Amino acid sequence: MRQKSRFGILGMLFGAIAVSGGGLASETSYMPVDQAAGFASIMTTLKKEAPRYRVRHLNYLKLRYDLSDKPSGATMSKGKPIQEGIRVKLPQGVTWERLSGMDPEEIKQKGLYPEGFLPLPHVKHEAGGQVFSHLQIEEIKKQEGRSLERFDVEFDLPDHFLPEFPSPIYLTTHPELGDVSKGQLVTRMNYFEIFNGLLNPKQLEGLRLLLTPFPQQEFNETADRKTEKASLGVSCFDCHANGHTNAAFHLVGDIRPQELRHRIDTPTLRGVNIQRLFGSQRALKTVEDFTEFEQRGAYFDGDLVIGVKKGINILDRGHQVHAMAEFQEILNFPPAPKLDIFGHLDPQKASKAELRGERLFFGKARCGTCHPAPYYTDNLMHDLKTERFFQSKTMNGRRMVGDGPIKTFPLRGIKDSPPYLHDGRLLTLEDTVEFFNLVSGTKLSKEEKLDLVAFMRAL
Predict the structure, then answer these.
(1) Which CB contacts under 8 angstroms, 24+ apart, belong to 202-206?
(2) pLDDT tens, position by position, 166-206
(3) Which of 176-185, 260-269, 298-307 has the lowest mean pLDDT?
(4) pLDDT in tens, 96-118
(5) Three-state secondary structure call for residue 407
(6) How far apart are CA 258 and CA 252, in angstroms?
(7) What is the distance between the alpha carbons of residues 290 and 294, in angstroms, rounded to a whole number?
(8) Three-state DSSP class for 251?
């Protein structure tokens, strides 16, 4: 017997949604084109509901993580302190050493898989959509007078877990210049002044388009938007700020029903010139494909019908897409002064801990199997089969299941790109080492894990 949706106004917004098996199950692959309620009443209701979802999500984050500010002595490329320590909380009475000594089935049956290793839900998974940190929101409002603030949800992670903002920009065409951003967030208001004379005309046009806002699911001019005022939309570099990442997140558009859609953390665009797969799980084959796919599908949750309604921006492949790709392909990795030309540590520059970590990386820890030098990616996809470790359940609207195949992200400059994994569930490199130590069964000692982190910070 069908039940009425328990999510209030969402039932009005998303039409034929029923509660099934403890989670949301969509009766259709499509979203409704029309809506029953007017914009003012929807906004009023969603604003009223927002604190409940915010508290629900914050409580879950505190269950999963230690969110305190614990800066290490190491820094990102421009000087922001890197957070240290394992932040994923263990079940009571369990140690990491004990956990790594158990087989997956025992962990599953005893319910000992750490909550922080499970897929990370969206702040409001039932609705999803793009969410930006206050850093990006405030700077875009200051420079452009455009609002990236939603009235129904807020960003969730504390600033100290985010990448540097604004991040430096390194170009393959100008290694002698270092950071070419001049400490600014590059927007359509200042890009020409900063880059005229550094880029050729095609690259300059590509950058302009990457900075140009176009309609998107939550940021548009229709009555089912999530901004108080009608919005021009979002730009590629609203998430990939300065060609890097500001940790904005979204839900992938290529999965149904809603409860199974993966949260996706914005990956950096640094080093796309050496990559052969694009999208954390989509396996698009060129950066041109990815650029075009984002505008045509991902911006509208993979629903082409809604895209037509809200203002889909179809780019010209031969001119606009190629220009955008040409700029993206000159975004370089940050400097790594301890690496030689083959991507390995220079023994004269590296510390003993870093050298030990490198040996572990390519040896016992088996990281190098998927992350070979010099760029630390095999340009393939791998399924970690994490479902071996836990019973499926639903938390905050997200059904916890296996992740499926995930692209091997390059690890060059990895210290600049927290949080980690495709959905940002791992807040620190220490968390990442613990996750892969458990999933891959390498049984590293505490000292070996610290050495591995030291090595990755040098990449």
Answers:
(1) 202/322, 202/323, 202/326, 203/323, 203/326, 203/327, 203/330, 204/327, 205/320, 205/323, 206/320, 206/322, 206/323, 206/324, 206/325, 206/326, 206/327, 206/328
(2) 999 999 999 999 999 999 999 999 999 999 999 999 999 99
(3) 298-307
(4) 999 999 999 999 999 999 999 99
(5) strand
(6) 10
(7) 6
(8) strand
